[in-house]
Design goal:
CATH superfamily of the largest domain in chain A: Dihydrodipicolinate Reductase, domain 2
Shape of chain A: elongated
Distance between the termini of chain A: 39 Å
Oligomer: homodimer
Largest interface: A-B, 67 and 66 residues
Largest sheet of chain A: 10 strands, mixed
CATH class of the largest domain in chain A: Alpha Beta
Radius of gyration of chain A: 25 Å
Structural class of chain A: alpha/beta
Helix content of chain A: 25-40%
Strand content of chain A: 25-35%
Chain lengths: ~450, ~450
């Protein structure tokens, strides 16, 4: 970080704001900026002045915005002299990356809600912000108004974070919750989520876990003071989860949630690695995360001194996301008026990202096996030989007695050992079908 | 706020720290400062240098601290040239007030965990900090490492907060939880809390609600950008709660918790007031706050755009409190190195504190009445005449039929109307005893 600093424009000076994008979030940001103008001026020490709004379609009606402020030349807008802060709520990666870099290099502070951009290019963006001594804020990129970014960046700056895990995608939680509550299939629950506006027309980014993976990358980077990018996150979505999986889980006292799990791992030699992953996870139905319903988000942070902290709220939607953007905007504007700068990205610990195969996980394996004497003993021996200990074994009667149902829950073992074991199991004559394999946590 | 600013000492420069007080929290702060020295230096941009520790008894052994650093002259320590930041973890009000004011006036930033001091004298302290352009941090004053102060001050700076409520005192929650779980009396549960270290030798500040009231004052001040002091908070403790109250509540589907409730109230003419209160409160047992067990804290914040947010964690204890102090210390030190200043107190909205009598509340009234025809109709008429509507009425058989038990739950009405009604009830011939009156929320 440079040691020169921004002395500030001085008390009472207006702070020029450019907004890029006028979708749901952008519209709410502009509306709330206008509605709360007096309060924001008092909190900042000077008024926010909206200088321009970049949109792709100039002909679309934009109620509540002076048409003179609209422009389709975002590149020119972000470099304008009267703009101090650029708010990026476009979405996508390449186009906003160009604009945000250009803004930072022109000495503008940037507030973005764009998790994909931050998870892919934080290095480059942080370097540009450092270079110019400007702010780069992105609270809205993770769990909307739940202030987990600020908490990791500042409140827990005096602690060591060991684990961050939770529900960070509202769409998939809505779908899994609907499946659990109504018994609906994945397809029907997704259709309902789309109808109600919880899922986008193309739900890929949500249901395949990509959105959650971007958030996991951001949380792991901040929490472990290291660089974890989107591509470093092991990611599995919920498209393979069936109504049967959910019913079977409930019967066994579990709930299936799509969790983001970020961990600090200690190697045998005492060195450390980090890991970030997103996958459907069985958690005990008594765990607080199991009761997180609809599109809500909840995030646990385990820290050395603070212990376990939990944050819960509405993790998506125009207004909650706008709340996070505006909190960042007030912060960035305060610095433009009074001088100084918020703590930037700091990846000093520079911990390597562990191979997913080395990460300790636990499996819940549901399978059909031949109903012959000695099957269980034989399988148990195979697990023991692979160094995997079993936590619970349940054998269930099956109606026509042609086979038995076996449900195994393992203790922690390296992911690769567990995955290899499942592969070998499915090749055994005694094993008729591995019905489902879901990781377990909590 | 002054428009001059602190330009910072520059990257790599050491930041001198004085710690006042070496009780549980002070000891953990010093230990963790030493254990995490490298991490903190990387996060701050310069090393923290412990310059002195003020203690009242120089002869007491202080393992882990260089004896040369100990002093019993706190007044001299806070003004020393090599001290940049003063950490106050003494407790009490008058003595730490003198020291903190002296430190601020000498240009030192201050980090305090002292809720009583902040709730009583925030005005004066904030003015001194503004005057010198230094930081005054107090995250640890409310709910230890649960970062609710930072969240109100920064993350939600772009939103309007309407209500803050929750469990902010671990000792009383431990006692109420023990009473509910084991059926213990208040006295026995208090004794157990003392034995286990959850209650202090003199538990007055906790069980009378004073500690929670200080926290409510701080939360209301930050949340509503107004000045709410300890004396503005209506405060009732838990000493009158009996095992019977708790059993009766459980039977009716309620749990009794000591809640701090801070509200923005809108008058009929559209003007606004604020209110902060602490009292035993019945909440539905299905409400997440009802499951907050042992000494844990949980705080809900309802904001206009963000919706309802919840924060949960360990709200007391040496290490969690030290985590909050150290987070503040890293923040204050970063500003000493890089320049600038955290957002100070800002009470621009300056909303008046409502008379407690005008605050809308709801009552749960448990009473014994004569078992005669028409009693219920007569009482219901009296409530209606007072403008109080009843939400539920339950009449229960009593064993020997000499009287009936009547349990009334009201809708919201001004506190003074409800309190007046209860007073009049207890004077009626038909009412043999008003067994308990507890407010209801959630």
């Amino acid at each position: 970080m440079s040691t020169s600093f921004n002395p500030g424009k001085g008390e009472g000076q207006p702070v020029g704001v450019a907004v890029l994008g006028m979708g749901t979030v952008g519209t709410d940001v502009i509306r709330l900026m206008q509605e709360n103008a007096d309060a924001f001026e008092a909190r900042i020490g000077g008024p926010l002045a909206l200088k321009g709004v970049a949109v792709s379609d100039l002909d679309k009606p934009r109620p509540g915005v002076d048409p003179a402020l609209l422009t389709d030349d975002a590149h020119a807008l972000v470099e304008r002299d009267d703009v101090d802060i650029v708010v990026e709520v476009i979405g996508g990666i390449d186009y906003p990356r160009e604009l945000v870099l250009k803004a930072l290099k022109a000495g503008k502070s940037v507030v973005t809600a764009n998790k994909a951009l931050v998870a892919a290019h934080a290095d480059e963006l942080a370097a540009a912000a450092d270079e110019q001594n400007v702010d780069l804020y992105f609270e809205a990129a993770v769990a909307a108004a739940i202030p987990v970014v600020g908490m990791l960046r500042r409140s827990l700056a005096g602690d060591q974070i060991n684990r961050i895990f939770g529900i960070v995608n509202g769409t998939t939680n809505f779908i899994l919750d609907a499946m659990a509550t109504t018994g609906a299939s994945y397809e029907d629950a997704l259709a309902e989520a789309t109808r109600l506006g919880y899922a986008e027309a193309d739900p890929t980014a949500d249901v395949e876990g990509h959105d959650a993976a971007s958030k996991a990358a951001i949380l792991a980077s901040l929490g472990f003071h290291s660089r974890v990018k989107f591509n470093d996150v092991h990611c599995e979505g919920i498209t393979q989860i069936s109504a049967d999986d959910i019913t079977a889980a409930a019967k066994a006292g579990y709930t299936i949630k799509l969790l983001a799990i970020c961990e600090r791992l200690t190697n045998e030699d005492g060195s450390e690695q980090v890991s970030a992953r997103v996958h459907p996870t069985l958690i005990p139905s008594s765990h607080p995360l199991a009761s997180v319903s609809k599109s809500f988000n909840a995030i646990y942070v385990d820290a050395e001194a603070a212990g376990s902290l939990m944050f819960y709220g509405n993790g998506a939607g125009g207004a909650p996301t706008a709340s996070a953007v505006l909190g960042d905007l007030v912060g960035a504007a305060r610095n433009k008026v009074h001088g100084g700068r918020a703590p930037g990205e700091n990846t000093y610990a520079n911990l390597p990202v562990a191979d997913f195969g080395d990460v300790p996980t636990r499996y819940h394996i549901d399978m059909q096996v031949k109903d012959r004497v000695g099957v269980l003993a034989d399988l148990a021996t195979r697990f023991a030989d692979a160094g995997i200990s079993l936590r619970t074994v349940r054998q269930e009667e099956v109606e026509r007695h042609e086979h038995a149902r076996l449900i195994l829950v393992t203790h922690q073992a390296p992911e690769s050992a567990l995955a290899g074991m499942v592969e070998r199991l499915s090749e055994l004559d005694d094993v008729q079908q591995v019905t489902s394999v879901i990781r377990l946590d909590g």
